[in-house]
From TrEMBL:
Database matches in NCBIfam families: PncC_domain
Cross-referenced Gene3D superfamilies: CinA-like
Transmembrane segments: none
Name listed for the protein in its UniProt record: Nicotinamide-nucleotide amidase
Pfam families attached to this UniProt entry: CinA (PF02464)
Annotated organism of origin: Arthrobacter alpinus
Domain CinA C-terminal, chain residue ranges per copy: 8-155
InterPro entries given in the database record: CinA-like_C (IPR036653), CinA_C (IPR008136)
Length: 164
């Protein structure tokens, strides 16, 4: 569970590790960015975010390949990685976090409600993580946001360890 204290520690650790962060959000609609910026001092690490709800925005602003979106759909691990990398490029950040998935109430592009991918990019390399959340639309979005922040904490912790 995210707390004010844990978020403040995340921001402090990112600043100490000289990490800059950007977000690319579809499913969460800006919730990850909003969670980060509620912390005083977050401007020391958070560069900005792009809410890319439509595929055309994923293409234009994040550089996600149109053929990738047409072939695989927006809810895909490769798309999550491309979004995270695109956030880094667009904002000049070392770390990018992306969210894409189906919040419901209906399945989308053959994916069930609650099927989510979170992409994490760090210094030009990206990895995606697959989740199957339960609950209503809001619960799925909150769970995805919490997991995205948790993944961000892991990246920041690992980068801080490398810096020592």
């Amino acid at each position: 569970m995210l707390t004010e204290t844990s978020l403040a520690a995340l921001v402090e650790s990112a600043v100490a590790a000289d990490l800059t962060v950007a977000t690319a959000e579809s499913l969460t609609g800006g919730m990850v960015a909003a969670t980060l910026v509620q912390v005083p001092g977050s401007s020391g690490m958070f560069q900005g975010g792009i809410i890319a709800y439509q595929n055309t925005i994923k293409e234009r602003l994040l550089g996600v390949s149109a053929s990738l979106l047409e072939t695989l759909g927006a809810v895909d691990p490769q798309v999550a990685c491309a979004m995270a990398l695109g956030a880094c490029t667009a904002a000049g950040a070392r770390v990018g976090i992306s969210t894409t998935g189906v919040a419901g109430p209906e399945p989308h592009q053959g994916k069930d409600v609650g099927h989510v991918y979170i992409g994490v990019a760090f210094d030009g390399e990206a990895k995606s993580y697959e989740y199957h959340f339960a609950g209503d639309r809001e619960m799925i979005r909150v769970q995805a946001t919490q997991e995205a922040i948790s993944l961000l904490e892991q990246v920041i912790h690992a980068a801080g360890e490398q810096k020592l």
